[in-house]
């Protein structure tokens, strides 16, 4: 007869609750105040001034249009990343990024080898619906997302089950959001446009490029 270890869960079902609703097919964790206020203020300033922010452009109807945010890409040498038809070559890690990364790796015991940074200059800057499901991230990517500055609404929608409501999470100064497991297969996310008067927000998504 087949021996079954009672401690082994045969059909692990991870139920994620977000915004008071169950989030099937996802593994998402949010830690508000992962970095305390003082530390967050300091890290925000260091990133604002010390990152090599770029205005990326996309071709649209034969016209080049700036995407609605500034970005930067840092990581281990050779870990290039293609996204929205662009190939990004990483800049070399700096001490601020290494400090943030090592804190994140204390809760998620993996080695992140790259980070994509976004600077939302006002509430008008945004990122539209997408999944982080590029081939170089592997089958079930783990993404650790750290936010500083203005609070913005981060929304999820299920890609297949349209009966599920949208889920909204406020990502505050010093928060950490983890997405892993099948999250990117089944869910898309966005930062919707908000009031122009909103101040700057910086987001870092640590990733593992295979
Ligand atoms: O700014 C955020 O919180 C999300 C950014 C994002 O989804 C991405 O860069 O892939
Ligand atoms: Fe994303």
From TrEMBL:
GO BP: DNA alkylation repair
Keywords, ordered alphabetically: Dioxygenase, DNA damage, DNA repair, Iron, Magnesium, Metal-binding, Oxidoreductase
Keyword Nucleotide-binding: no
Transmembrane spans: none
Any Pfam family: 2OG-FeII_Oxy_2
SUPFAM superfamilies per the UniProt record, alphabetical: Clavaminate synthase-like (SSF51197)
Single GO molecular function: demethylase activity
Cofactor: Fe(2+)
Location of the Fe2OG dioxygenase domain: 111-210
InterPro entries: AlkB-like, AlkB-like_sf, ALKBH3, Oxoglu/Fe-dep_dioxygenase_dom
PANTHER family on file: ALPHA-KETOGLUTARATE-DEPENDENT DIOXYGENASE ALKB HOMOLOG 3
Record's protein name: Alkylated DNA repair protein
Protein's organism: Cylindrospermum stagnale PCC 7417
């Amino acid at each position: 007869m087949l021996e079954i270890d009672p401690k082994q869960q045969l059909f692990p079902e991870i139920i994620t609750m977000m915004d008071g609703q169950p989030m099937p097919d996802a593994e998402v964790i949010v830690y508000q105040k992962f970095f305390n206020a003082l530390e967050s203020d300091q890290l925000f300033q260091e990133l604002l001034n010390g990152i090599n922010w770029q205005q990326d452009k996309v071709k649209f109807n034969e016209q080049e249009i700036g995407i609605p945010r500034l970005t930067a890409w840092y990581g281990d040498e050779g870990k290039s990343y293609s996204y929205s038809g662009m190939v990004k070559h990483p800049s070399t890690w700096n001490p601020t990024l290494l400090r943030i990364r090592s804190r994140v790796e204390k809760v998620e015991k993996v080695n992140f080898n790259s980070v994509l940074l976004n600077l939302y200059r006002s509430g008008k800057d945004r990122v539209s619906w997408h999944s982080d499901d590029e081939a170089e991230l592997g089958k079930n990517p783990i993404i650790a997302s750290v936010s500083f500055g203005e609070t913005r609404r981060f929304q999820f929608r299920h890609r297949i089950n349209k009966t599920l409501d949208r889920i909204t999470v406020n990502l505050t100064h010093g928060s950490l959001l983890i997405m892993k497991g099948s999250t990117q297969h089944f869910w898309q996310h966005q930062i919707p446009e908000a009031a122009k008067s909103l101040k700057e927000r910086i987001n870092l998504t640590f990733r593992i490029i295979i």
